[in-house]
Design brief:
The chain is of the alpha+beta class and 350 residues long. The chain has two domains: 94 residues, 2-Layer Sandwich (Alpha-Beta Plaits), CATH 3.30.70.100; 187 residues, Alpha-Beta Plaits (2-Layer Sandwich), CATH 3.30.70.100. Helices cover 25% and strands 29% of the residues. The strands form two sheets. It has a twelve-stranded antiparallel sheet with strand order 6-13-10-12-11-3-4-2-5-14-9-8. It has a two-stranded antiparallel ribbon with strand order 1-7. A hairpin with a 5-residue loop joins strand 3 and strand 4. Helix 6 packs antiparallel against helix 8. It starts with 33 loop residues before the first strand and ends in a 12-residue tail after the last strand. This is Aldoxime dehydratase. It holds the Pfam family Dehydratase_hem. InterPro entries: OXD (IPR025702). It comes from Hyphomicrobium facile.
Length: 350
């Protein structure tokens, strides 16, 4: 049976840029891509966070985070959201709600409603003793791709809203497959142009800072769910894969700028009561898909993950791995930081 393409049929076109493998390539294990209705043309991904430091601020941070979660119940709120947390290199606890819409018009109605826009714009946000941030990204479907190790899920992220899954795909198991899964790569080099810019504020002074993106900034959300693993598979995750993954995440967090990584967060899912779940993901923003590829193909931590996974892939029955990758037009990115320390998100890159 011929393999499917990760690229949905309605987004396929004659290639002016060839794939990195031939049409006869046979991947070592099956992988799948999420599928949405043809009517879905754009996505909205909003990372809405609260930042605090010290146990004495946790109550205030949790109350602030609850305000963000309550805002999702307003008309036109997100179709799906995930709750995650991490402690950054400066020792700040970051609570983040990752919200998704598959209709930008619905997002715009929500975002521009007085209940939302006035709350974020209020000077009160500057006086609460916690930091807030918004990173809102809007890829066109031809700028977006996913990959999953399991045909029947569990789906994650925006893929839950898309709802469908491909047959086994050809574009995986080789260097360059991530780019090949992006529909736009059929005809476009996806090269970056321009630079990050400070639209408002000064990171070192705190307060409200707005950063402007540039053409073809890349985002990857790369996740793992180990909740169903047991025995040898669970041991392999905790002893062979997770420590190396953690090392790679810390490298990107601390020294990623030298590789073109603007920011990196190693995030842990939690429930609405703040209890950690057995799944997580790395979230990083890059100058370009090329920078992301070069790190993946050359840095020892990622090479070790790639080699370990491909060596053991046939053993993995319950460990689910997936990612979302997008590139963005400059106009479809919005980054706002309120009272955040100057190494938060894109602040460290400007």
């Amino acid at each position: 049976m011929p393999l499917d393409s990760s690229i949905p049929s309605h987004l396929r076109c004659p290639r002016t840029r060839t794939r990195r493998v031939s049409d006869s390539w046979n991947p070592p294990v099956p992988m799948y891509s999420a599928r949405g209705e043809e009517s879905v043309q754009n996505l909205v991904m909003a990372y809405l966070g609260v930042q605090s430091k010290g146990d004495e601020m946790k109550g205030r941070a949790c109350a602030a985070f609850q305000n963000i979660l309550q805002s999702f119940k307003q008309p036109d709120g997100p179709g799906r959201h995930d709750l995650v947390q991490f402690v950054d290199a400066e020792g700040y606890l970051n609570l983040i709600a990752v919200a998704y819409w598959i209709d930008p018009t619905t997002y715009d109605k929500w975002n521009e409603s007085p209940a939302i826009s006035h709350w974020w714009a209020s000077e009160d946000r500057l006086k609460e003793g916690v930091g807030y941030f918004r990173e809102v990204l809007r890829p066109r479907m031809e700028q977006f791709e996913t990959i999953f190790t399991h045909e029947h899920g569990p789906l994650e992220g925006v893929s839950i809203l898309l709802g469908g899954m491909s047959e086994p795909i050809i574009e995986h198991g080789y260097w360059g497959s991530m780019r090949d899964r992006l529909p736009l790569s059929q005809t476009d080099t996806l090269d970056p142009s321009g630079t990050l810019t400070l639209k408002e504020g000064t990171p070192a002074l705190g307060g409200r800072v707005i950063v402007g993106g540039h053409q073809n900034v890349a985002l990857i959300r790369s996740g793992e769910d180990w909740s169903l693993t047991e025995g040898e598979e669970r041991r392999t995750w905790f002893e062979d894969i997770e420590p190396v993954l953690h090392e790679g995440m810390n490298y990107l967090r601390d020294d990623g700028l030298e590789s073109g990584c603007y920011c990196n967060r190693y995030l842990h899912h939690m429930d609405e009561n703040g209890n950690l779940l057995e799944k997580g993901f790395g979230y990083s923003l890059w100058r370009s898909i090329t920078n992301l590829e070069q790190w993946a193909e050359s840095h020892h931590t990622h090479l070790q993950i790639f080699v370990t996974f491909n060596r053991l892939a046939k053993k993995f029955k319950n460990l689910t791995l997936y990612h979302e990758v997008s590139v963005f037009d400059a106009a479809n990115q919005y980054y706002e930081y309120i009272n955040c320390h100057p190494k938060t998100g894109l602040l460290r890159a400007v």
